[in-house]
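# step 3/5: fold
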Amino acid sequence: MSDTRIVINKDNKISDIDDRLYGSFIEHLGRAVYEGIYQPGHPSADEDGFRQDVLELVKELNVPVVRYPGGNYVSNFFWEDSVGPEEHRRTRLDLAWRTTEPNEVGISEFSRWAKKAGTSVMMAVNLGTRGTSDALNFLEYCNLDTDSYYASLRRQHGDEPFGIKLWCMGNEMDGPWQVGQKTAYEYGRLARETAKAMKMMDDTIECVACGSAHINMPTFGTWEREVLTQAYDYIDYISCHQYFENKAGNTEDFFASADDLDRFIDTVTSICDEVKAQMKSDKTVNISFDEWNCWYHTLDQDDERMKKEPWGIAPHLLEDNYTFEDAIVNGLALIKFIKHSDRVKIACLAQLVNVIAPIMTEKDGGAWKQTIFYPFMHASLYGRGSAIACDVTTDTHSTAKHKDVTDVEAVSVLSKDGKQLTVFAVNRLTGEDAAAEIKLEGFEGFIFDSWQALESDDMLVTNSADEERIAPASKTDYEYKDGILKATLKAASWNVIIFKKD
């Protein structure tokens, strides 16, 4: 059995955590919107056609912000087609996912759904096939209460201003798969002028510039540096995207891949600070990690479907059925984001419903929780407040592609009211339990409260509409004495340990 000692000192604060670290994403892709959040005629549908069973699960996750409407979809998105009376809206072909978009759900409907879900909207503008003037028109329609054309048009459509405060300047613009792919200089200039003009119209908004599509892009690094050099004065965040996969079937290496986030985040942070110094700026640009998840199970079949069956409406695309090991990797990613919460201020689990999602729906049935639902729910519920570093003494191991991998990863969060401390911990060993000792320093009056865990001997077990095989269990096999908790973290387990002020 591996031995691990975790010491948590109240003075080792990393940062206050932005609630938006627990955001998500809904794209007009597959069944995310249609048969996902929206399905008129479904037994659970409300007066607006929104599935209430889905809304209840979204509320369980307590998602503070949802990115919309894409993703790759946004690079040929004509926002005007998604507003006004439904009978006047245009049906369009979506080139990104080779589907047909009926535009039954648009800006007004999605804003209404977001309000019901208790979340806010992170809106993206099309900088692929469109540009600054269209983004300004869109912003005016969404946010302004003036007598100008687009604000008046929104009022004619029966809506008050939506008050959207967070705006993405396009999506993955260095990707060759992107409609309207651009060089770093082209995009940097366009993002600069668009963000500048949008802030002239509404100086309460924040803007996110596109980082490179992923860390293995040939443009990674040089792209961020050029985009930031061009747009630094007018943007607030730069985006990062990362998807984890286990095509090799190597679980321990899959768990170790979460460490790649450290290098990714540290590199982008260094570039941001390099440009800050170069610009002699007082402003700090932070990171919006607005796409992340495991994604690999359905890639081949999705490619085949888009080739052979194009232009369908809401086809089954990217519907990964997540395993237990996927849930552990997502838990590890959440730990990394909390550890880097001084610079990662926004993160969006991609996506929320049906499409690489924690929530799935049956067309004529109910909604259900995937394995990845639970680590995200725990982090969102208990991970708000201040991140406190854990001093973890643990053994290390090597995997196929990673060296010096810690057996146990952990971080803690002190709640906003200062009355609850939550420890998130993962034992990354697949064949060995970890004997853990947790000691608090400087947390006078705190006592052990509860311990929940996700555990399984089968790394590939999944949940389904018929059976939930993976769900949190309350743990009682611990010893708590003289302020020290001794507990055995099972091999390959996600653990949530809570202390409360007595």
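# step 4/5: annotate
The chain has eleven helices and 24 strands.
# step 5/5: archive (pending)
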